Amino acid sequence: MVASSSSLKLQDLIQEIREAKTQAQEREVIQKECAHIRASFRDGDPLHRHRQLAKLLYVHLLGYPAHFGQMECLKLIASPRFTDKRVGYLGAMLLLDERQDAHLLITNSIKTDLSQGIQAVQGLALCTLSATGSAEMCRDLATEVEKLLLQPSAYVRKKAVLTAVHMIRKVPELSDIFLPPCAQLLHEHHHGILLGTITLITELCERSPAALKHFRKMVPQLVHILRTLVTTGYSKEHSISGVSDPFLQVQILRLLRILGRNHEESSETMNDLLAQVATNTDTSRNAGNAVLFETVLTIMDIRSAAGLRVLAVNILGRFLLNTDRNIRYVALTSLLRLVQSDHSAVQRHRPTVVECLREPDGSLSRRALELSLALVNSSNVQAMIQELQGFLESCPPDLQADCASGILLAAERFAPTKRWHIDTTLRVLTTAGTHVRDDAVASLTQLIGGAQELHAYSVRRLYSALAEDLSQQPLVQAATWCIGEYGDLLLEGSCEETEPLQVEEEEVLALLERVLQSHMSLPATRGYALTALVKLSTRLRGDNNRIRQVVSIYRSCLDVELQQRAVEYNTLFQKYDHVRAAILEKIPLVERGGSQVDEEAKESKETAQLSEAAPVPTEPQASKLLDLLDLLDGPSGDAQHPRPLDPTPGSALIHLLNLPCAPPPPAPIPNLKVFEREGLQLDLSFVRPPGTPTLLLITVTATNTSGGDVTHFICQAAVPKSFQLQLQAPSGDTVPAQGGLPMTQLLRILNPKKAPLRLKLRLTYNHFGQSVQEIFEVNNLPVEAWQ
């Protein structure tokens, strides 16, 4: 009693703590008061126990330890006095949780209070159960809560519904207990009870296929409730900005989305209502926009009519014109999800999407960039790439890499002509060369090499760009390669497609020397420039002494690879000058598509010819190298006259390869099953486009043979750093049950080095009410997918 009399009241404790000027003073006040509280608990003072616990709860809210008050909460809950129970239940909600066994000790007290007829006490017990109830407590008290769902008191029924929602989330198998009362609760006119009931039904349908089938029969009743809300209003006190009860409307629309998914009859029942909501809702306030957005999501998830889906896309298009950035962001995200299934409808809003690229908000411009790249096709590629290139010149640095890579991929896929493709790639390299993919240089050189009619045009464009800027390393590498290959065309001045450009040999050599000496040049770039100089020794008419001097300088370079190149090139000038012209010839024309198969056939033919040749006596390795180089230098002696071929099977193969027949198609790559769990299966199918051997297209197909839908399905992938990965938007985020329409997603993987492919996948989804996350590696990909 002495301890309680000397302790402070709650108001005085709060005031003293607030008056503390330092952390040390506050800690001293709290430690002193906690000592009084402990002494009072030890003395077992029943009259002041709730006051002491109230002070302890305030101390707990300030972040100080208060675990020693857990047992006092149990004592107050068991007390018959309402003032004790109120503080006891509050303490239980704050101090107890599932990680402590003490919370199980209040199960009997809650069960006793729920069976009493005092509404205030029942409300306290229900609040505590819904806040801290573990799975064991939910199983023990489910029957009592189910009885309270039909109590005459609206206050108790509302809290019982919310407690039932918590129980279903904790223990989904309890759904059978709460199915019968939900049908009666849908007839309620109380806003809180009806909103809680809709939430409860939503939880039941997401976690139980039987409940989903049961509540699909009540779609007409839900449609009637929502139509009443839209037309006449439900209760004026719950209207917000002229929208009748938007919270209830949104919750009903979410439930209708679940009930109508992959169900034709239910979708047909709600089509007219969704059209009515979409056309009659006021969009001048945020509450109306929230209802409209949920309407759009419902239309896109169910099997709605085509006209209704176009209406939904148009609503999202109107959202893009809204002044609220959050609404525009939601619209862009939703349109990005719909671009695969309703591409033509989304295309109508392409100008508005492009306008969003200029948003100062980084998240908005990123979403607009992703959607703009998804809207590019063969009919609009030139206009869209022009807009994206304009955005690339002024976009933030964190978006340049995504924008540049997206432009290059779109140009590679939809380019109308090779010249346009070269100009587009060159502009990207000029604007944001340091942010492009690693294979951009290889792709451009392959493109130029395959366009013989554009060699002169390309070398002049790249020379001019290189003379203006040496900072963009991919641009410098592509330009030096092109100058080394086609430097003779640069000096001829015969290109009619560009402005007249008079270039002297000394200017070309001086520019390459600038590249070698520039502090911005990477070792790889210097390697390109050194090789270009050596190749120009066979393409320029002047003296090669200047080139030899530059090459000799780099024989002592600190970079090992550059030093090795210089030593080899210097040896080529000194010892093998007679074969230098043959070795440094232009790279053979590389055609995309079926010509690669022809080249492979040609290589096979040459291999067969070598195998038919007579055996040669063993010679030193250097002699073999000279003989091989002599073959490239021209006819010399008998080396150019192989003996006649015998009519052997190898000879027949040669004649067969010489036939003017179409090359055989590449063998199909077998599919691969990589994941299977509870009816959900993930398969990978592979395609390598003939024109791009370094590109692999992987289609991820998710199928579901179980009895429940797989919702919120997200598939993420990762590859090693030497690869480039782009994930296309999936066809949806729901995998229907019972073998419904599968969900697909396309992965584009660039493998410039043709290295063995490893893939890491992360799957997240909801199935039978459980949130699942799986992370695994796929190391057994078919060899045909990467070789």
From TrEMBL:
Belongs to the adaptor complexes large subunit family. One of its GO terms (biological process) is intracellular protein transport. It comes from Monodon monoceros. This is AP-1 complex subunit gamma. The keyword Ligase does not apply. Keywords: Coiled coil, Cytoplasmic vesicle, Golgi apparatus, Membrane, Protein transport, Transport. It is a peripheral membrane protein. Residues 595-618 are annotated as: Disordered. Residues 667-782 form the GAE domain. GO terms for cellular component: AP-1 adaptor complex; synapse. Residues 3-30 form a coiled coil. It is found in: Cytoplasmic vesicle membrane; Endomembrane system; Golgi apparatus.
